[in-house]
Amino acid sequence: MAKSMFVCQSCGSQQRKWQGQCPDCGGWNSIVEENLEASAVRAAGKGKALLTSAITDVSSEKNARRSTLIEELDRVLGGGLVTGSAVLIGGDPGIGKSTLLLQAAARLAEQSGVGGSVLYITGEESMQQVNLRGERIGALHKQLQLAAACELESMLATIDKLRPDVVIIDSIQTTVSSRLSSAPGTVSQVRDCSAALIQQTKKIGHALILVGHVTKDGALAGPRVLEHMVDAVVYFEGDRGHAHRILRAVKNRFGPAGEIGVFEMTDAGLIGIRDASRLFLAERATDVPGSVVFACLEGTRPMLVEVQALIAPTVYATPKRSSVGVDSGRVAMLTAVLERRIGLPLSQHDVYINVAGGVRITEPAVDLAVLMAMISAYQEKPLNAHIALFGEVGLTGEVRPVGQPEARAREAVNLGFTHLLLPKENHERVQKANIIANMRGDKEMPLALMPVRHLSEAAQKL
Ligand code: TYD
Ligand code: MG
Fold first, then answer.
1. Nearest CA to ligand 1 atom 18
2. How many CB atoms lie within 10 A of CB 216?
3. What is the CATH number of the domain that holds 196?
4. pLDDT of residue 269 exceeding 80
5. How are beta strands 86-91 and 81-82 bridged, if at all?
6. In 3D, which of 361, 155, 135 has the Cα closest to residue 269?
7. In ligand 1, which atom is closest to the CA atom of 171?
8. How close is the Cα of 102 to the center of ligand 2, in Å?
9. 177 shares a domain with 31
């Protein structure tokens, strides 16, 4: 008798009966019947004793990095693709995962020496489609091997025979093991197929890149366990309405997490953008209320972005608070801080916050920027166009120091800003860095620092 279980597709919990709502994660309609009879990773037989080795004797040669020659991608990966590692690239459909990986595959193929190769297995498009795209974006190379397949067993056999340097599977959701009876993309298929592919990677020593889809609410389709199995998880973010895309490392065993890369989607594929600040500030209108420039730091990369606020009398019973690019819970908290500590009566006003250009800010250093944009919008007074700012704000309205203030200050100066509003406790460090701002042409001036201890001080500077 086949044994089956009802498995939640979003959290992986198992139930005996079908239910409309998962009792563990609370997700609706996420429970699907799965046959658990033939699990591909079911252990059998007695274990053998492991071969242990002193940590000092373990060679790290295997962890050699392979550059993709795409600077922005290398940075996110922590300096390149590590051999023997597995990387998961997630993102909405159509965001550019296949495009970027095909570009990277061609560059990697160029560098693989005699007899080396890169294997790109597509389960979503035909080989002709991939070839057409490759031709358009200039990603054709003899040592880039293409295969169209969905079946796990034949993939494993191909990799074993070809021994490529890099393997790209596009995507893990279309990969199926014939040994499992559940449908492609279900928890057990995704889990077992990736386990088998990763196991092979560690054994043979190539680098593996898996493409994964993201569900509507932003979680990776399939089990969270996939994120634990791989060495690095990279997400593609961005607004379909904008041409730029942000690649963000949310986990990386070989480099800093939180690192980002910025790309622009063009008709010749994705192009890395070094000077991201210029791009994000390109459409900024100066001297309008409700707009401030925030010096942020995502990963190790300083970047200037415009934070905008709009405050309008409400027509609803409960005023609206809406934000794009900043966490909405944080905006609600900051609104309350503004009401209590500065005394702005916002209970009859709608508050909208937007980070221009479709960037998503995850660090709390954005607080001061959001608050200053709100104050400026409420008072309809524009902030001086030469000021950039940063700082975390606590519930009492105190402005707290943030990490790497010097790097932020330098980026502000690079883009022509002459004044910096910053937390008092960051003042000394930035002052020591002795950063020169260029005041229109030849006259050199130090960057003017405006340290603040409390939100009310910052509000007065407006
Ligand atoms: P794709 O890489 O297929 O997305 P994913 O694999 O993440 O689903 O990206 C497809 C989108 O990118 C599609 O809307 C067309 C656009 N695109 C360009 O604008 N320029 C290009 O050179 C390519 C190849 C795609
Ligand atoms: Mg694709």
1. 267
2. 7
3. 3.40.50.300
4. yes
5. unpaired
6. 135
7. 6
8. 10
9. no
